Amino acid sequence: MNPDVRAIARQRGEPGFDEAVLATSFGEEDPGIRPHALVKARSADDVSQAVLWARDRNWRVACCSGGHAWSQNHIRDSGLLIDLSALDEIAIDPAGRSAVVGPGCISGDLDAALSPHGLFFPVAHAFTVGMGGFLLQGGFGWNSRMVGLGCDNVTGADVVLADGTLIHASRSQNEDVFWALRGSGTGFFGIVTKFYLALHERPGFTGIKMQVFRLKHLEKVIRWAHEIGPQISSQVEFQIVVNRKAFGIFSHGVEVVTPVFAESRAEAKELVAFIDKGPLRPAASLTLPLIGAPLGNIMKVAEKVIFPTGTRWHADNVWLDGPVEQVIPVLQETAANQPGAPSHILWLNWNPAPGTRDAMAFSIEARTYLALYGGLRGKKWQPSDRDWATKAAEALMLHSAGSQLADENLRRRPARVMSESNLARLETLRAKYDPARRFFSFGGN
Ligand SMILES: Cc1cc2nc3c(=O)[nH]c(=O)nc-3n(C[C@H](O)[C@H](O)[C@H](O)COP(=O)(O)OP(=O)(O)OC[C@H]3O[C@@H](n4cnc5c(N)ncnc54)[C@H](O)[C@@H]3O)c2cc1C
User: Fold this and answer.
1) Contacting residues for 151 by C-beta, under 8 A, at least 6 apart
2) Could you report the per-residue pLDDT of 159-202, keeping only the tens digit for each?
3) Which pTM does this prediction carry?
4) CA atoms in the 13 A half-sphere facing the CB of 388
5) What CATH number belongs to 3-83?
6) Using a 6 Å CB cutoff, which residues line ligand 1?
7) Residue 368: strand pairing partners
8) Nearest CA to ligand 1 atom 17
9) Disulfide engineering: 268 pairs with which of 125, 162, 260, 428, CB 3.0-4.6 Å?
């Protein structure tokens, strides 16, 4: 039965099995658990066969594409892990402004393939993030405030269901599966083997403007950012990053980082002029000029500097909608306790335009997104550093509308990741499409 799968499956206890499982993760943490077996799929048919092979053994199934989930949600203590990283095709139709990509295709490769055609997709901010997990959880990509989340730009998907069948889901076919796959992330009840994407015209200019403050100015910076956030153009990603080795001052500081997408350098300069003209400029240690660079270069550098390999990551997040006065003391305490670089706090001005999204599983967003990335490297970190992100997110829950699946930490801290009604609908669909719960779901489920 399913002889092809038997030939490519690696089983627990075999030499090299542990290494192969751990190699599927971007993060270096060893979660200390292992599936029964690992299959590296090379086609949609391999995926179907592997699901049936697991069903024959009464195993549950997990999958990974780029392996970038901070929580390493794909590594479970039993069942089958299907690695989709080899399904990395990219087929672009420039005339139709569309693309078909495999879930294992990585963000930087997709951007590089689109660039010569003058086309654009809101891929993830780091080069190596897999499109599979990124698109399913929502997908806060470059220029997403302007062109939408990754999942807003998904027009269809090929999906292997729990009975091994391969279906196509779109607005007009299997609409309920299409609804679910846009935003259910690790809670999705199928395996996507292809995504169909709508593309955009590539902005003529991409660049970054930065300003850096010492930590003592944190409160002032957050108050200012909170106040002006709603007026900032959607073409600007207005972010504040707190870390112990801030750019240029090499000490605990607050970086204002503003990527900008425009038709020209002159337009971009105008869009980020609020930083030069801002009331806090005299307090800044550094105000850099606007730097233009191809997006691919920005992604590579950002990943190397902000998310270096060889790091054990523990991340968490909240959508903030509480009064800024109440949030600031929690942020100050969180910064005071933060582990060394590359750990960082990300405050992101999101301010979504109300009522602009399709009906889909993705359903929670708020004025501000706050993510906590605990990055432990070498021997310097303390055991308590492992809990830093989780504890900070717990402390911020009072002021939160919920959490985002991009930086989920559900195995350690259960959180609300979609509206009650969407969660109820997702579970109804799961009962219909995956009644035996073949696929692992959120957190420990
Ligand atoms: C360095 C770094 C930078 C990041 N930057 C961003 C960013 O800019 N914006 C953003 O929104 N997020 C970002 N993230 C978060 C990232 O998008 C999510 O963790 C996403 O799930 C990663 O996708 P993946 O395929 O690489 O991960 P994986 O770990 O492979 O997948 C995560 C989960 O998604 C599910 N899944 C994956 N592929 C499939 C599939 N084909 N079919 C069904 N289920 C599947 C599985 O449940 C899996 O456990 C970043 C993460 C890292 C590590």
Assistant:
1) 135, 136, 137, 138, 139, 181, 182, 183, 360, 362
2) 999 999 999 999 999 999 999 999 999 999 999 999 999 999 99
3) 0.97
4) 28
5) 3.30.43.10
6) 26, 63-69, 73-74, 84, 103, 124-126, 129-130, 132-134, 136-140, 185-186, 188, 191-192, 303, 307, 406
7) 320, 349
8) 134
9) 260
